[in-house]
Task: inverse folding
């Protein structure tokens, strides 16, 4: 994969989402959003509730289809894909980090990291080494056989970060990753995400915490289903093409 | 590749079930009982019909039995005119007619069966005095335990000799050797020359026979000629203050055919031959082979009834599984959402939950098979009832349990797969 700093990772054109609530009652959650995100960018999406932030997240994560508009993830338009194709896109191109970690209770740390690979029909034995490597990347190499309920919140979220990396995604989508963590462990997780970004990963993070958002290169504020304003954070250095996370 | 993924899905299913051991175990119980009852009930049914068939086979599948019966219209008459002599039943001539006219007849065995008390010293035992011919042993299964059976010489000379069944001998001679002693029936003495046992007679037979009023192990055999001379053709029976006089030559004729295939053609022929000489309906023809067929049919019905009862319990077990799986799907909605977000297709979710249900039902099925195989042994041990476990019943029960898992798993699995991933992720 050749990476140039201005290659577009994500391109959104006139994205609309309308929810039919029955009768003539409609909610326009997104009213024609345009957005470009370059490779290696760290983007934060902010906004009050009802601003269309969650809808945006669902569409970006390919969990839902837009009513109108186009969404290019990489070089493919994913806005018209069917359910199975969207599942594949999610499994191969997107890494999810959730507010409440969302690890699977009956699986060990290692198995949780493997889940995305399982659904791509990959041989789990072959991917074992990579999963161990990712676990050590997030500092949990000694907890491979622990269950989620034996880990602290911060540790669980670090497992989730490792899981989001396992399929080598184009973009990592983080939904309030520190929402359930105290500020110290939250900062640790955010440091980890920063490191991934410096390694070349494209990050899209949804939050309403200004301090969390301040780590991003670009911060977009949403309001009434549109991008209200965008702030570019000059203090943070944009990653160069040389700094790409080494993936085996 | 696909099998590797399938195996890990199975492993995952087991793991998820192990998370709630008690709940999984209770759910499995339904299937365990279902499978167990299918196997056990069919084993008991099979055992019961086997016993019935054995009892019929003991009569001999080559044989045709013809019994004298009191004609129904005469029973009414005897009520009106007491003391009238009844003249009915098979005759000596019937025997020779069958022997000469019906093709494929090997032997014709005449029998006179008289209820009398037999005495030795002070003990008196009711028994059946059977007058018959020496080849009785070859027609009816009979094993000579000691001494000998009736011989041709006994028949020619109408000797006063008798052969006892073991049971009768034990009752008459609790402390002595019955051989060479004489027992008294009516007014005459008969020397005991042998002891016999009805072959295939099970231990519980006398007890069962007692309730039927037909003591099978209570026979005393004498030569036919002796029976004719000592008892005469006219039999008197006293009962409840009145007495009946009957004239019966033979009580039973057993026709032994050369071959099993000849039995069914001979049956209507015998009826035709006999009915020409018997105006009154005073005989019945019993064909053990037909009884056997009938028993076979009864067994089928029995199996269907027992099988359906057991199948219903499997059905109930299946509904229990479906119920618990639906609850599980609701409980694990979040997990389903996560899996969908991480790339699981609807199909993957369906497979996961279906596999889980099948693991539950097949696991229950396996335990049920083990318990079901053990149960008939316990039943046999406690009730002395014969049970036979057939291989097909085990496979049937196991197969049904698997099918129950798939049928009742499909709905919860589809419900799980059709959840909206966004909703599922938001589920608390």
Result:
């Amino acid at each position: 994969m050749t990476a140039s700093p201005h290659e577009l990772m994500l391109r959104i054109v006139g994205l609309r989402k309308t929810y039919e609530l029955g009768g003539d009652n409609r909610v326009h959650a997104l009213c024609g959003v345009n957005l470009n995100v370059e490779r290696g960018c760290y983007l934060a999406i902010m906004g009050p509730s009802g601003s269309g932030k969650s809808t945006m997240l669902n569409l970006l994560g390919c969990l839902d289809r837009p009513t109108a508009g186009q969404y290019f993830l990489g070089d493919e338009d994913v806005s018209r894909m069917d359910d199975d194709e969207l599942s594949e896109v999610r499994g191969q191109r997107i890494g999810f980090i959730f507010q409440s970690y969302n690890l699977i209770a009956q699986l060990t740390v290692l198995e949780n990291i493997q889940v995305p690979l399982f659904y791509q029909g990959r041989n789990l034995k072959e991917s074992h080494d990579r999963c161990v490597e990712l676990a050590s990347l997030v500092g949990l190499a000694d907890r491979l056989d622990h269950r989620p309920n034996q880990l602290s919140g911060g540790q669980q979220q670090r497992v989730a970060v490792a899981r989001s990396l396992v399929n080598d995604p184009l973009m990592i989508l983080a939904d309030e990753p520190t929402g359930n963590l105290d500020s110290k462990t939250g900062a640790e997780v955010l440091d980890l995400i920063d490191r991934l970004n410096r390694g070349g990963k494209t990050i899209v993070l949804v939050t309403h915490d200004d301090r969390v958002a301040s780590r991003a290169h670009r911060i977009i504020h949403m309001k009434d289903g549109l991008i209200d304003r965008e702030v570019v954070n000059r203090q943070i250095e944009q990653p160069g093409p040389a700094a790409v996370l080494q993936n085996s | 590749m696909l099998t590797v993924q399938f195996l890990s899905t199975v492993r995952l299913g087991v793991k998820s079930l192990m998370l709630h051991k008690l709940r999984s175990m209770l759910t499995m119980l339904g299937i365990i009982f279902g499978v167990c009852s299918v196997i056990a009930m069919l084993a008991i049914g099979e055992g019961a019909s086997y016993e019935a068939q054995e009892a019929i086979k003991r009569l001999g599948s080559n044989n045709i039995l013809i019994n004298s019966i009191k004609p129904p219209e005469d029973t009414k008459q005897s009520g009106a005119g007491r003391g009238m002599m009844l003249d009915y039943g098979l005759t000596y001539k019937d025997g020779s007619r069958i022997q000469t006219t019906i093709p494929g007849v090997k032997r014709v065995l005449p029998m006179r069966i008289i209820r009398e008390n037999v005495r030795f010293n002070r003990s008196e035992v009711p028994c059946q005095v059977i007058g018959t011919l020496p080849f009785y042993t070859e027609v009816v299964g009979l094993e000579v335990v000691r001494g000998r059976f009736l011989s041709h010489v006994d028949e020619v000379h109408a000797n006063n000799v008798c052969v006892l069944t073991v049971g009768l001998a034990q009752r008459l001679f609790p402390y002595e050797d019955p051989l060479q002693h004489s027992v008294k029936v009516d007014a005459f003495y008969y020397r005991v020359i042998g002891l016999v046992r009805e072959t295939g007679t099970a231990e519980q037979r006398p007890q069962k026979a007692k309730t039927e009023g037909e003591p099978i192990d209570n026979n005393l055999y004498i030569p036919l000629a002796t029976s004719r001379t000592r008892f005469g053709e006219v039999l008197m029976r006293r009962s409840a203050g009145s007495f009946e006089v009957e004239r019966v030559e033979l009580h039973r004729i057993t026709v032994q055919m050369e071959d099993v295939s000849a039995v069914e053609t001979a049956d209507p022929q015998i009826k035709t031959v006999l009915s020409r000489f018997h105006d009154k309906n005073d005989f019945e023809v019993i064909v053990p082979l037909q009884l056997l067929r009938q028993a076979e049919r009864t067994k089928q019905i029995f199996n269907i009834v027992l099988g359906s009862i057991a199948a219903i319990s499997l059905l109930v077990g299946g509904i229990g599984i479906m119920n618990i799986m639906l609850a599980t799907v609701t409980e694990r909605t979040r997990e389903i959402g996560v899996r969908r977000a991480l790339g699981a297709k609807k199909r993957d979710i369906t497979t996961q939950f279906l596999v889980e249900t099948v693991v539950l039902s097949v696991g229950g099925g396996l335990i049920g098979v083990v318990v079901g195989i053990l149960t008939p042994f316990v039943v046999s041990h406690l009730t002395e009832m014969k049970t036979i476990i057939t291989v097909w019943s085990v496979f049937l029960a196991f197969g049904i349990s698997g099918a129950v898992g798939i049928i009742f798993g499909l709905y919860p699995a589809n419900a799980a797969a059709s959840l909206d991933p966004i909703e599922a992720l938001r589920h608390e």
